[in-house]
Amino acid sequence: MFGLDTPITILLLLCLLAAVIFEFINGFHDTANAVATVIYTNSLKPWFAVVWSGIWNAIGVFAGGIAVAMGITNLLPNEVLLDTNIYHNVALIAALLLTAIIWNLGTWYFGIPSSSSHTLIGSILGVGLAYSFIGTDANASYVNWGKASDIGLSLFLSPLLGFSFAILLMYIMRQSIKSKVIFREPATNAPPPFWIRLILLLTCTGVSFSHGSNDGQKGVGLVMLILIAIVPAHFTLDLKRNPSEIKGELASMHSILYKIDSTALTADEAFELQKANKYLGDFESKLTNQASFLDLSHESKFDIRKDLLLMGKAVKKLLESKNVNLSENSKEKLKNSTEKVKSITEYAPNWVILMISLSLGLGTLVGWKRIVTTIGEKIGKQHLTYAQGASAEIVAASTIGFSTWLGLPVSTTHVLSSGIAGSMVASKGIKNLQTKTIKTIALAWLLTLPFSIIMSGLLFLLFRTIL
Q: Among 12, 47, 97, 342, which residue's CB has the most CB atoms within a 10 Å radius?
């Protein structure tokens, strides 16, 4: 398989299996958030809701693109991800996968809504930090802190937005909807009026689709981490692409970068311009007389990946500067050309996307009840009303969808749980929340990152000494 020795092939397959298990757990751990409202408002029978949600989760993985997936992949610099000792790469992957699976299973067992996103990202940061203790370059950063800060901010703000927007939406609904039936507790085992049922079905579909498009991408990013780390010769670049496809984009980038007046830039910005030109030139020189990426040496593939990632960062900083003397049209062309060139490294094979979509969809069918019970019964003191369920899911679907468009991972669990809490507060104030459950969820929220960072780091150092 990929020309690997038997022991490495076995380790690769085990790592891929672990990634599938993680995404399967993600399915029944996080998808419970999408079906809790339709189940507790009697809008759908539990098993129909779960199957329906599973289908839309799988569809969401395919439709969501790969921006979030690449955000996960790029959390680790090349120096960490492409260690020359392949067993060290296996140690890295095994540590972060095992940590993510243990924490997700533990919180699911106790019925605690916890974020798979936090767990995975914390695990990746943990191995990066652990690598810094053994890395040979004292000046190197073994974590992409720029990307980590963007992701951390989105994970921190999303539950606050979910809570606030749910309160606002509940207020708007009370002011604009004349019928009061939507604000009442559902009659026992009786389905809601058709129009309410349709709204809740649409919101459940929206959350499921958004979850697949965001969380599913995290699974895709995780598999790409595995493939790049263990089989870099085959997956460092998209080998199906033809170098001739991007020659026009490279010429466009050269032309636009040449227009920038370096004398109008700060010293740091001028350095970024210098780096952008340097890495662009290095990339072009490696493509000289190359008809296919397949013909490149392993070292050249590694260098090209590094050049493109660093060039992309430099161009991004230039585009954010107010001192760059480019028209909006030129800036847009430079941005688009950079994205097209970077697509050589930012890709995922169709079989990876299919594998993750099936894992997430099938996982939805198993073990969902524990988290559903917490969402539906233990966050608020009252039974979930139609309006509360709809407002929480509308906020969750829109927040997750917007984050996916920005290429940022967010926690479906945190957004929807906070949305439920916000809808409960909007109805009867803060006293309408079950303090014990809120404290447990908040504690899990606070502990997830430290636990996953520390555990994955320690496991990485342990496995690295064994393998």
A: 97
Structure tokens at 464: 């690295």
Instruction: Express each pLDDT in 163-221 by its tens digit.
Output: 899 999 998 988 888 777 788 777 767 777 788 888 888 888 988 898 888 888 888 98
The answer to whether the CB of 185 falls within 8 A of the CB of 383 is: yes
Query: How many CB atoms are closer than 10 A to CB 350?
Result: 8
pLDDT of residue 360: 85
